[in-house]
Write a structure and sequence with these properties.
The protein is mostly helical and 211 residues long. Helices cover 47% and strands 11% of the residues. It has a single domain (9-207), classed as Rossmann fold (3-Layer(aba) Sandwich), CATH 3.40.50.300. It has nine helices and six strands, in the order αβαααβαβαββααβα. Helix 2 (27-37) crosses helix 3. The structure holds adenosine-5'-diphosphate (ADP).
Length: 211
């Protein structure tokens, strides 16, 4: 899943996971697990994420490499938020080649003006990770998770000035990955994701997957 922060990669990855039965591998979620554990690495990561910057390539690469060693990825997997730099893209290619996996890239195209509005209304359940949007997909009871009743939270990096910094990091460090994808001849598809129900967008993504 490729696209700017707030393009709905996480939402789409979760829908596809249910539909295809493939694991959803999100570097953002894995990093947040470290932050919650409050270990030494977690404290370092928290500072970087809060500032809207990217964590180092070595760390992101290592997280994904370790995750791909688990047997549940054999039928297929959904990568969300990785690769985010050209260096990560090269690493990903090597990892997938080794397993004889062929990546298909879905680039979620979203109007930037919509992104800030979307992300600043975003809420997340600290317990189960469910995502809500106050404008588009609010919880049934205000501020409480539909699944487990936990009080919803705003991610530290979903504040407006930080969102703008994340978009800058995306433009500068992540957009060049598109050049890598093109040069490497990786299967690439643009998916219009500004409007429309998440289920409809998920359908468009399923259409680009090989039989
Ligand atoms: P979003 O796509 O909405 O920005 P994520 O949960 O994917 O949300 O990422 C949140 C933050 O985690 C990023 O702003 C960055 O600091 C860090 N991060 C996630 N994935 C990577 C990665 N592959 N490389 C570097 N940093 C990452």
């Amino acid at each position: 899943m490729f696209g700017p922060p707030g393009s709905g990669k996480g939402t789409q990855a979760k829908l596809l996971k249910n539909h295809l039965g493939w694991p959803h591998i999100s570097t953002g979620d894995m990093l947040r697990e470290h932050v919650q554990a409050q270990d030494e690495l977690g404290i370092e990561i928290a500072a970087v994420m809060k500032s809207g910057q990217l964590v180092g390539d070595d760390l992101a690469n290592r997280l994904v490499e370790t995750r791909l060693e688990r047997p549940d990825v054999e039928a297929g997997l959904i990568l969300d938020g990785y690769p985010r730099t050209v260096q990560q893209a090269a690493w990903m290619s090597k990892l997938l080649d080794r397993k004889d996996f062929r990546p298909v890239v879905a680039h979620l195209k979203v109007d930037y003006n919509k992104i800030v509005a979307r992300l600043s209304g975003r809420r997340v359940c600290p317990q189960c990770g469910a995502l809500y949007s106050l404008a588009f997909n609010p919880p049934r009871v205000s501020e409480l998770c539909d699944n487990d009743g936990s009080r919803l939270m705003i991610r530290d990096d979903d504040r407006e000035e930080i969102i703008r910094r994340r978009l800058e990091a995306y433009d500068r460090q992540t957009l060049p990955v598109l050049g890598y994808i093109r040069d490497a001849g990786i299967s690439y598809h643009e998916v219009e994701a500004t409007d429309g129900a998440p289920a409809r967008i998920a359908q468009r993504i399923c259409e680009i997957l090989p039989e």
